[in-house]
Design a protein that fits this description.
Cys-tRNA-ligase, metal-binding, zinc, alpha/beta, four-stranded antiparallel beta sheet, Cys-tRNA/MSH_ligase, 454 residues, binds zinc ion, 15 strands, four-stranded parallel beta sheet, nucleotide-binding
Amino acid sequence: MSDTQPRLHLHDSRTRSTVPFVPLAPDNVRVYYCGPTVYDLAHIGNLRAMLTADVLVRLLRHLYPRVTYVRNITDVDDKINARAHANGESIADLTARTIHDFHEDLAAVSILPPDVEPRATHHIGEMQDMIRRLIESGHAYEAEGHVLFAVNTYPSYGALSGRTPDDLIAGARVEVAPYKRDPGDFVLWKPSDDQTPGWDSPWGRGRPGWHIECSAMSQRYLGESFDIHGGGSDLLFPHHENERAQSMCCHPHGRFANHWVHNAMLLVNGEKMSKSLGNFLTVRDVLRDTPAEALRLLLLRAQYRSVLNFTREGLNEARQMLDRFYRALENLDPMQDPVPVPDSVVQVLCDDLNTPRALAEMHALADTAMTGDSLAAARLKAAGNLLGLLQDTPEAWFRGGAKVDPTHIEHLIAERLAARKARDFARADEIRNDLAAQGIVLEDGPQGTTWRQA
Ligand SMILES: [Zn+2]
């Protein structure tokens, strides 16, 4: 990192303050994000967490020579078992299909893949090792085929989420079970019957609890101490609190995650998204009639720590912003060399990923580009690249929105050309007017006729 580069400041959930980000090892910044539990399509709330990670990792890669980004897949979970049973399909088929769809949805919105994407079922041995160590060190105990973590053996339990054990019990966020010594104790391992996926273990055939998965996989790929652990704010408690307790007790000399990043929730039309309210939106639902970049831009219009309200109007506004950016990019001279990302954009992103201000900087660049300034257009393009936006050419963008069959339009353009050659200007005008009525504008230039959406 050069001296002139802006310093990244990030909010840390554990200390509840925005602090300079100092990597443990600047030659390899290590990031872990909780990935999906693969039983259903990703919804736009999931997408917000994955996109926050994407922006963070893109910025870290801009600032540091190497970043290792790990995002897991939870492919053993009771929700998966229940869904496979309900669908009448095998767990393997359900998880393979869901992982495929998840990758496809994220790629559509230009979310880059992680460096390592470990699957929980491939790391059962690592989980069992951790559980064994926790039992040996007195932090976990066996009861009726279960292994439980004893929260009262870790004095800092609750420090990450800012809750006390009493709050946790009062909030009834813990499952009460007769075999628990303390109601706050949580499962590391649980028994499986013949119909449920299970692995042999010193505690009988069973399967891991959710929290131990992330502790084991982060340790395997990033070590006992790494830089950033992130996820949606809904994961702060109990998931991240429990991950931290397990990992800190298993590796008392490590720090687990040095810095915790949590994005705020997403509302749909001002309400919490839920299937019962009928406002539950998968990524696919939105992309059916919206360009993926518009969805990406909509999510970037709010800083990740503020609650984001998803609306159709917001989506239209995002699309209009992109129209404007792509209009500005039409001023990019094809001979113009690519330029670095403008400092002004990097600067505001380094202020706790202030994406709305980065977009404001892009609007200012677009203003200048629209005066015919090719350099400003190149800087706008570079800023877009850093944010995963403006990945199309203006021509492709303006065509992409068209509701009409492109082949049909090309056919009509050819017919119009033939009509003009035959001096049948009435027919030529008729074709132009018909297309205009469908929102298609023809532009005659030295290279022939092109079209775009109005
Ligand atoms: Zn996790």
